[in-house]
């Protein structure tokens, strides 16, 4: 793996650490490590910027899907200052994955996430 590929893998690993952090304090710490100051997160359900707002989106998602974790789907692909990767939201109890998608991240020179554009490919049916 080249140094630039490692940069993408590292950024995405930090991203998943933030999404899977346990407590509000752990989420805040992980977001501060993964995102640049003022970094943003946008998906069909959220459009926020700054560590506190990104951490709030993560905490809200965890509250909506208790007992689930995010895991990568396939390899991370990257070039220049961008990386893309697939993901799914998986039940710890039974391994089901009702939500899946892919994200594109823009990285700063230091490897921190400047922005995330998230896309959802699979969502659970509504009742």
Structural summary, described in words:
The mean pLDDT is 94. The protein is globular, with a radius of gyration of 14 Å. Strands 2-1-6-5-4-3 form a six-stranded mixed sheet. The longest helix has 17 residues, at 3-19. With 127 residues, the protein is an alpha+beta fold. It has three helices and six strands. Helix 1 packs antiparallel against helix 2 and helix 2 packs across helix 3. Helix content is 33%, strand content 43%. It has helices spanning 3-19, 24-34, 51-64, and strands at 35-43, 46-49, 68-79, 82-91, 99-107, 113-122.
Major beta sheet, strand line-up: 2-1-6-5-4-3
Which structural class do you get from the secondary structure elements? Answer: alpha+beta
The backbone outline, from C-alpha atoms, is globular
| Strand residues, percent | 35-45%
The largest sheet, given as strand count, sense and whether it forms a barrel, is: 6 strands, mixed
Instruction: Give the % helix.
Output: 25-40%
Report the total helices: 3
Using only C-alpha atoms, the radius of gyration works out to 14 Å
> How far is the N terminus from the C terminus?
45 Å
Number of strands: 6
- Quote the average pLDDT: 94
